[in-house]
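Troubleshooting: if your tokenizer reports a length mismatch, compare your output against this known-good record of 134 residues.
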Amino acid sequence: MKTPDLSEPRTRRRLITAVGAAVAVLVLAGVGIYGLLVGPPSHGNDDSETPGPMVTAPSDPIPTTTPRLPVVRASDDPQTFARNVATALFEWDTASGFMPLDYTSVVLDVGDPTGQEQAGLASDIAAYLPSRDA
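Known-good structure output:
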């Protein structure tokens, strides 16, 4: 077996790259292991007290009006209609209590009033909305 000639620039570059990569992996592994051993930082002077969950309240006041579903205005212009639908979908107030199906029905009512293409349109809309669990 022939030993590599380290005087060749190509071989030397490969060796330096391999050694550098190995050192980087060892450093990253060491930092990770150290972080796992030390754990998260403690807050306060007493280590026996572990902080509980933080509960924050929204700064916005509770609305006094009953939330309503948006109204999608029909339009003969495709760009205007698409903008109206997008506005209704993307301005969804998730705190209002309405589910994705509620918004889907609003768009279906104006997007396909005949009901002939509702299955395909409903699946397209559902792809853009979060799931009920989310």
